[in-house]
Amino acid sequence: MNVSATTSTETVRSRDGTTIAFSRAGDGPALIAVDGAIGHRSLNPAGAPLTSLLAPRFTAITYDRRGRGESGDTAPYSPEREIEDLQALITEVGGSAFVYGISSGAVLALDAAARTIGITKLALYESPFIVDDGRPPLPNDYVQRLNELVSKGRRGDAVEVFMTNAVGLPAEMVGQMRNAPMWPALEAVAHTIAYDGTVMGDTMSGKPLPTKRWAAVTIPTLVMDGGESAAWQKNGVRALVAMLPQAKRRTLDGQTHDVDPNALAPVLKEFFL
To answer: Which of 198, 185, 200, 197 is nearest to 68 (CA)?
Structure first.
């Protein structure tokens, strides 16, 4: 996420020695935001506005997930290492925190809440679950293909696979995006797209969600979607809410997967305070 000019980068060392870069702004209970695929502090245009809106009531923590921005990376990748990254941040800010995750970052936050002591409340926005035939599922070889493309230096092609297969953009639109000024920044984090695919597992396969994966998540959880989001996204949200014992659903009127911080921040404040 982007951060305001008044914040500075700090670092914390994860369990495997990887350096995780983060920023904090404001004063109050710690609230850690977990970005989705490709997002990090300098590549998420919604990050700075959301931080500014939350900072008056919270210590808003934004960080670069491993392999992105100013954070390090240690091979081989494992979702467990990302959970340890989040645990290291929670420890750094005092041992407990609220956590907000968006898209695949919401799934990472869920996994962390199932294994981590210290997350006291959880807010999730549109985990991109495909639980029915509302849209095509991801190909079975999606993660393998991403890794192969990156290993061959075809980082732009990996981004295109993500944009067309996961995001669902038309190939023609992605072709135009390749000429945009932002494309090199997307290519820079192309290797991490497979990380998010690994976090998602088979939850974008069109099958029901796994019943045991988040059985341990018993903390208060707010699961949000956008009123203008696609039906398949809303169906995934409903399926998740039905699985979590202390979850409630909230639909943000007029919003899509690209949620407006001005619509999101008041809902987060109401839930976490």
So the answer is: 185
Rounded (5°) CA angle 260-264-268? 160
Q: Is 209 within 8 Å of 131 (Cβ atoms)?
A: yes
Q: What six digits make up the tokens of 33? A: 């935001």
Query: What are the residue boundaries of the structural domains of the chain, listed by start?
Result: 10-133+206-272, 142-199
Strand 221-226: give its sheet, edge to edge. Answer: 10-13, 19-25, 59-63, 30-34, 97-102, 119-125, 221-226, 247-252
Say whether 96 sits in a helix, a strand or coil. coil
CATH of 10-133+206-272, one of 3.40.50.1820, 3.40.50.10950, 3.30.420.10, 3.40.50.12780: 3.40.50.1820
Indicate if the pLDDT at residue 2 is higher than 60: no
Tell if the pTM clears 0.85, that is, is over it. yes
How confident is the model over 229-264, as pLDDT tens digits? 999 999 999 999 999 999 999 999 999 999 999 999
Q: Which tens digits make up the pLDDT trace of 180-226?
A: 999 999 999 999 999 999 999 999 999 999 989 999 999 999 999 99
Dihedrals phi, psi of 54, to nearest 5 degrees: -90, -30
**Is residue 116 within 8 Å of 83, Cβ to Cβ?**
yes
Q: Which helix (H) or strand (E) holds 61?
A: strand 59-63
106 exposed, middle or buried (CB, 10 Å; 0-12, 13-18, 19+)?
buried
DSSP 1-52: ----TT---EEEE-TTS-EEEEEEESSSSEEEEE--TT--TTT-TTHHHHHH
Q: Identity (one letter) of the amino acid at 32?
A: I
